[in-house]
């Protein structure tokens, strides 16, 4: 009880000094809990949606994927014949059955040809209005579609695009463009997470989406009273004889949930990973805080020991303070996490994904995990300072000797740090010299961990040298004030090293990712310059295939000299060694593709692969299966027949563009695949006539005005798009890393604030002998800048080393250009100086306000 009282008294006596440490715990816990609440809420939203939209039993084609529709290569969804509906209606236990048609391989535009697709990346779904949809949607205006000239739209899409009854919209699919006027608007009775829905009458949906009547993508079956879904599925499956996929409502909902599960898990664990980094940075802050508090209470601890307190009791007293800090920060962090989750939901709403707070899900495990993490991390971080406090002898403490300064321990620490750093450097060397990326990645991971720990451990040793260099370059110009700032930073190398290490971690990751991202862009740009021989690339921004109508529009542009179609298909390959490889990707293109893409070959010429019944394979595939020029490969095309193709070219496996592709001609593909099953183009390449690229570029954009889902890019556009994609990813990662950097800034603030308290008497004496408030504040600011730049130098140097090693592994995959983004690196370094200035504002202001006489009188 005495230990608890002492801990409570000390905690509240230093509540101002504890606030920043508590804030670090709060931020880290909030990020963990916010991530869990946000992802749990998304799961709840989708669970409710899938449960509400699933019929008791659903019958679909065997080719339909679990959890969603599979669009075949010809842009049409797989279907079942109308006879299935008739057979299902007569099955025992069936109350009703209804055939529906829907597709996601469509684009919907308004009268101005502007896309009506969600900006959040949600699907655009066009289908037939049916009783199952009527369960989750209510017609609030107009009426359901009854003929080919009518279409109904969901209320969210209508609001976003200001659609009204009578407005004309167009549905663009693989079979052409269908135009209709809005006849009705339906509102969701469940939360819509961001899809855009358009409804046609059943016959029009069949003709527009599939191209034939009497077929359905799904048959929705409702069970009669007293019949379970499982029994109904058994009865339906028995009638259909296993020729079709039959799923209960739960199976369908689970499959749909699984289809988005990978995305949800990636997002969840990525965010938790950054929260872990913030926790790691927070450890340094807490260690520094308690180390300085223990040092400042040396005499108090000595008195406690002198009157009978044991080492264990002193240790417990400090740990009890850490426990209070952890509980306080964690409780606030759990509440802040729920607020963060709500904020993320609002942000997603602005981006087009609607998430209702009615579905806000806070599982009991979320606050429990947040409290556990916050408390455990805080107590563990305070253990070393608590242990050092327990070692203070009563007589040394009463003489105000402070915590024991063990030179031997410092030497051992430095030696261990150098060994770990050297081991990390050697692991990075092994990673960079690896022959296979898979082997090198393991060494890279080990090297990153060991070098990071090594830098943290050896930080105090490095601080002495690096701070002197920074002081000579930056501080000596400020005269005595600058020299005092340098000495203050050098006074306690362990403290300076720990404070700089907190900033080092975040900046090391920033530098590493910057180098990797910049190298990827530079490598891809270099490869594009070497390999792409066409002027323009036409493709969809959302992965949709290119309709024949759009291809014809491109071919009709007079300013275009050459158009190359490019398709993807799958086939089962039987190689000369007798092995059969299922679902192998094959690229079919026009013979001009050999000119549009300059692929290096190790045997033969790529152009020969476009001869009748010919193909190419890549080098690694040829080695694995004993293939040489002239070898025969049996190819069973998906949705088509089987042929024997002769290998006429073997391409290099080091290619970046179309890495690992196997080529054949579209004419060869057409020999074995019926016209109605031919896959649509994935890409279209075009070259300008007589070098008139500007005129051809404008003409191509004009020709595709009615097809807003497709983008025309020249090589410059393509490079910029690649740069933007990587840049957006990096910006998102930097945003998440900002949490760790904020916690590191709090660490600098806390270190300076406690340092000012520790030097109260010294500051009073300096003021008494003539140091002005302005000079005092400048001294503290410069000390902060030096500490921040010390952390930045270590972090940026370490991160560039990691990034350069990672690029060596990417070089094994063809990305061979190492590009150091010096503007980013220099900008981050300069920004770190401003971080130091910002962190010093409050401590410097408080130091300047000290009463000189009171400061001198301080013990």
UniProtKB/TrEMBL annotation:
Transmembrane feature ranges: 269-295, 318-342, 362-384, 412-431, 443-475, 496-516, 732-757, 784-804, 824-845
Matching InterPro entries: ABC3_permease_C, MacB_PCD, Macrolide_Exporter_MacB
Domain of life from the UniProt record: Bacteria
Region (Disordered): 60-79
Coiled coil residues, start to end: none
Signal peptide residue numbers: none
Localization (cell): Cell membrane
Ranges for domain ABC3 transporter permease C-terminal: 274-394, 736-851
The MacB-like periplasmic core domain, residue ranges: 19-237, 499-699
Keyword Transmembrane: yes
Keywords per UniProt: Cell membrane, Membrane, Transmembrane, Transmembrane helix
Membrane-topology descriptor: Multi-pass membrane protein
Family membership noted in the UniProt record: Belongs to the ABC-4 integral membrane protein family.
Name by which UniProt lists this protein: FtsX-like permease family protein
Naturally occurring in which organism (per UniProt): Streptomyces pimonensis
Organism placement in taxonomy: Bacteria, Bacillati, Actinomycetota, Actinomycetes, Kitasatosporales
């Amino acid at each position: 009880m005495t230990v608890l009282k002492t801990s409570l008294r000390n905690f509240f006596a230093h509540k101002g000094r504890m606030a920043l440490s508590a804030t670090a715990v709060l931020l880290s816990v909030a990020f963990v809990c916010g991530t869990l609440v946000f992802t749990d809420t998304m799961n709840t939203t989708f669970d409710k949606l899938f449960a509400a939209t699933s019929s008791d039993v659903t019958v679909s084609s065997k080719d339909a994927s679990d959890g969603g529709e599979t669009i075949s290569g010809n842009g049409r969804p797989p279907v079942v014949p109308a006879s299935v509906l008739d057979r299902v209606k007569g099955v025992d236990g069936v109350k009703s059955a209804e055939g529906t048609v829907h597709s996601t391989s469509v684009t919907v535009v308004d009268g101005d040809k502007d896309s009506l697709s969600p900006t959040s990346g949600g699907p655009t779904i066009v289908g037939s209005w049916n009783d199952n949809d009527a369960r989750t949607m209510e017609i609030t205006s107009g009426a359901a579609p009854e003929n080919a000239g009518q279409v109904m739209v969901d209320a969210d899409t209508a609001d976003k695009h200001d659609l009204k009854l009578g407005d004309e919209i167009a549905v663009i699919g693989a079979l052409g463009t269908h135009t209709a006027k809005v006849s009705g608007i339906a509102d969701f009775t469940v939360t819509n997470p961001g899809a855009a829905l358009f409804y046609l009458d059943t016959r029009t949906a069949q003709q527009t989406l599939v191209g034939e009547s009497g077929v359905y993508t799904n048959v929705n079956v409702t069970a009669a009273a007293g019949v379970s879904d499982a029994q109904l599925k058994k009865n339906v499956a028995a009638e259909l004889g296993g020729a079709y996929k039959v799923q209960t409502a739960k199976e369908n909902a689970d499959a749909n949930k699984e289809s988005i599960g990978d995305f949800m898990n990636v997002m969840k664990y990525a965010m938790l990973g950054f929260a872990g980094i913030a926790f790691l940075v927070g450890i340094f802050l807490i260690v520094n805080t308690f180390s300085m508090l223990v040092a400042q209470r040396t005499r108090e601890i000595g008195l406690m020991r002198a009157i009978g307190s044991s080492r264990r009791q002193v240790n417990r007293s400090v740990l009890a303070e850490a426990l209070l800090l952890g509980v306080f920060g964690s409780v606030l962090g759990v509440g802040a996490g729920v607020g963060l989750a709500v904020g993320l939901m609002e942000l997603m709403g602005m981006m087009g994904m609607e998430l209702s707070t009615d579905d806000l899900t806070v599982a009991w495990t979320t606050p429990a995990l947040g409290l556990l993490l916050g408390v455990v991390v805080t107590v563990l971080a305070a253990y070393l300072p608590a242990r050092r406090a327990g070692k203070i002898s009563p007589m040394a403490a009463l003489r105000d000797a402070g915590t024991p300064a063990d030179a031997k321990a410092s030497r051992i620490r430095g030696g261990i740090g150098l060994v770990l750093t050297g081991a990390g450097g050697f692991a990075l060397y092994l990673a960079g010299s690896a022959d296979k990326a898979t082997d090198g990645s393991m060494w890279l991971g080990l090297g990153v961990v060991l070098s990071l720990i090594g830098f943290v451990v050896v930080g105090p040793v490095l601080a002495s040298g690096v701070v002197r260099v920074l002081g000579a370059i930056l501080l000596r110009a400020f005269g005595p004030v600058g020299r005092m700032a340098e000495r203050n930073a050098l006074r306690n190398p362990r403290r300076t090293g720990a404070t700089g290490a907190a900033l080092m971690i975040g900046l090391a990751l920033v530098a590493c990712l910057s180098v990797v991202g910049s190298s990827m862009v530079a490598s891809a740009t270099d490869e594009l310059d070497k390999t792409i021989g066409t002027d323009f690339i036409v493709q969809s921004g959302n992965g949709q295939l290119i309709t024949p109508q759009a291809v014809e529009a491109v071919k009709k542009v007079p300013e275009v000299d050459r158009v190359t179609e490019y398709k993807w298909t799958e086939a089962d390959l039987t190689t000369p060694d007798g092995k059969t490889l299922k679902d192998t990707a094959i690229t079919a293109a026009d013979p001009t593709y050999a000119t549009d893409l300059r692929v290096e070959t190790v045997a033969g010429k790529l152009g020969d692969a476009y001869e009748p019944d010919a193909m190419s394979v890549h080098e690694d595939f040829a080695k694995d299966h004993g293939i040489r020029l002239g070898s025969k490969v049996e190819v069973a095309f998906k949705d088509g027949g089987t042929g024997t193709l002769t290998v006429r070219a073997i391409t290099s496996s080091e290619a970046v563009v179309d890495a690992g592709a196997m080529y054949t001609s579209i004419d060869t593909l057409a020999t074995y695949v019926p016209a109605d099953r031919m896959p649509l183009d994935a890409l279209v390449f075009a070259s300008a006539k007589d070098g008139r690229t500007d005129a051809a570029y404008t003409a191509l954009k004009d020709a595709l005005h009615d097809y807003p889902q497709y983008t025309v890019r020249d090589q410059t556009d393509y490079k910029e798009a690649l740069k933007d994609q990587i840049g957006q990813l990096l910006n998102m990662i930097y945003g998440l890393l900002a949490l760790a950097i904020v916690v590191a800034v709090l660490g600098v603030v806390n270190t300076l604030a406690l340092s000012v308290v520790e030097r109260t008497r010294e500051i009073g004496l300096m003021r008494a002998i003539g140091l002005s408030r302005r000079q005092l504040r400048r001294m503290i600011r410069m000390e902060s800048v030096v500490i921040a730049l010390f952390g930045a130098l270590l972090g940026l140097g370490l991160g560039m080393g990691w990034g350069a090693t990672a690029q060596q592994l990417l070089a094994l995959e063809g990305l061979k250009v190492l590009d150091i983004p010096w503007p980013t690196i220099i900008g981050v370094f300069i920004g770190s100086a401003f971080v130091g200035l910002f962190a010093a504002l409050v401590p410097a202001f408080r130091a300047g306000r000290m009463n000189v006489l009171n400061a001198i009188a301080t013990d």
